[in-house]
Design goal:
Elements: E1 2-8, H1 12-26, E2 32-38, H2 41-49, E3 56-60, H3 73-83, E4 91-95, H4 101-104, E5 111-114, H5 119-136, E6 139-144, E7 147-152, E8 156-162, E9 165-170, E10 175-179, H6 182-190, E11 195-199, E12 202-205, E13 209-212, E14 216-219, E15 224-226, H7 232-247
Parallel strand pairs: 1-2, 1-3, 3-4, 4-5
Antiparallel strand pairs: 6-7, 8-9, 8-12, 9-10, 11-12, 13-14, 14-15
């Protein structure tokens, strides 16, 4: 496994500390990595806009505050999730105070670390990250004609049955399809992941759900999908189970 990680913090010592912590953890796990240290939010945004992909982002909440010009960490997190439409890149926020933690929930942080950094707490956050990376490494496999295709689980927003076609809607906005059965796809490939079979025509990835309502789901892009009446109690229970598992 090779990981590309960036630390965006205007304190150079914090960047070096995170780099040292990562080296201590990864050397025993045979994980190769590289880190880029950004001292401004604008620098990070420029890298992302140029197409640079990071497996993990450490983001200082207090960038651009205390008289410094520039975007703060909350603004950058919002930019990543909403403007760049990147809902999945894990972000670990760091700050000298916990008062911002509640405001960051809407931008789906992986974790929130307080300065000065503590190795034990840092290790817990990275273990959570590694667990997610392993989860996201799996794929949905389907056949079209004589060819076999794979779609990463984390790229799938939802699947829809449309006649004899199974349509796969991706986080990029693209749609792929194959001829098959939606129920079979769920039973054979998706039951071990955090998907909700909400309707005979829809299977939804938990990670793309913004609001859960008894009769429908609102996705992060504003799209609404129905929950069929016979499934509503079971779907509510399943949603709560996934939510509890994620918190733990």
């Amino acid at each position: 496994m090779f990981l590309k990680i960036t630390v965006c913090d205007n304190d150079e010592l914090v960047g070096f500390q995170i780099e040292n912590y990562l080296e201590c953890m990864f050397k025993n796990l045979n994980i190769k990595f590289e880190t880029e240290i950004q001292f401004t939010g604008e620098g990070l945004c420029t890298a992302l806009e140029s197409g640079t992909h990071y497996d993990l982002i450490f983001l200082d909440v207090n960038l651009g505050t205390k008289g410094k010009i520039g975007l703060n960490g909350i603004q950058i997190g919002k930019k990543i999730r909403e403007e760049y439409n990147d809902l999945l890149t894990p972000i670990i926020y760091i700050s000298t105070t916990s008062k911002h933690a509640v405001n960051l929930i809407q931008y789906h942080p992986l974790d929130f670390l307080l300065k000065p950094l503590n190795y034990e707490r840092f290790e817990k956050a990275i273990n959570k990250f590694l667990k997610i990376m392993n989860f996201w490494s799996y794929a949905l496999i389907y056949n079209y004609g004589h060819d076999t295709f794979k779609v990463k689980i984390n790229d799938i927003r939802f699947l829809r049955s449309n006649g004899k076609k199974v349509e796969i809607f991706l986080q990029t906005g693209k749609m792929e399809y194959y001829y098959g059965n939606l129920g079979r796809a769920y039973k054979e490939q998706l039951t071990n992941y955090d998907f909700l079979y909400i309707h005979r025509a829809y299977i939804v990835n938990y990670d793309y759900i913004s609001v859960f309502q008894y009769s429908h789901l609102l996705l992060m892009d504003g799209q609404t999908l129905p929950i069929s009446q016979p499934k509503r109690m079971d779907i509510k229970k399943r949603y709560k189970e996934i939510e509890k598992k994620r918190i733990l």
